[in-house]
Amino acid sequence: MDRTTNVPSGGVERTIAMLELLALAEEPLKLSDVAHQLDIPKSACHRILTSLIDNGWAWQSPESDCYALTMRMALVGQKQLARLQVSDLRQPILNALAERTRELVRLTAVQNNTLVWVGSARGRRSGLVFEPDMSAGIVPHATANGKIWLASLERERALRIALEAGLGQPGQQAANAINTIEALNRELDAVAGLGYGRAVGEAEEGVGAIAVAIRQGKEVVGTMSVAAPLTRLTDERVAEILPLLARAASDMQIAW
Q1: Domains in the chain and their CATH numbers?
Q2: What Pfam families does the entry give (predicted)?
Q3: N or C: lower Cβ tally within 10 Å for the chain?
């Protein structure tokens, strides 16, 4: 590609020029390519790219170390110019996260004082694959999605919702599920502190999930989760997936 000329030297101008360069690139670019085409030092180029990654505008391929834009710019542009329907923007975000994690990604929305499934994407086509019933109801105190939502609510309301959903009633959930108000209070305190919900074989034996909230202002309007067999969803794997899930949820908030 032709080398960009007359790029302003200020930090804001360099950042804008870098966004434009990455947006027009046909494939991810190496650090040296970006620095060369913008005619700026590699050190300055690396600082800007790191800032873009930290703020969700770019990502770096772990295989090639090349840089590319995330979907955030496309989402902002589409929302501003085309005013697309939310459903048009949701699925690509789910698909991208499923591809990167190679696990099941699901999206919920808060409707009528409960959570409902509104989207999903599967990242694994073979081997041990989790195939849930998307028409099934979401038990809030036994699911990662439900826990992060309940943790965002006033506690009395959260407990009332859980009790109405079967908290403490025998045979309602898997053996590992929380079944007392005291245990749920402790769990919601922990979830609020961590910033994500986690279920370990509670909604379905042998299956785990982690979930984060999708907010509009201060209100939680939905949740986004990654689910997998517990044999794969180890603590180490959770630590790897969480940043990807959080970034995807941030994009989903723009698309909501």
Answers
A1: 11-69 (1.10.10.10), 75-255 (3.30.450.40)
A2: HTH_IclR, IclR_C
A3: N
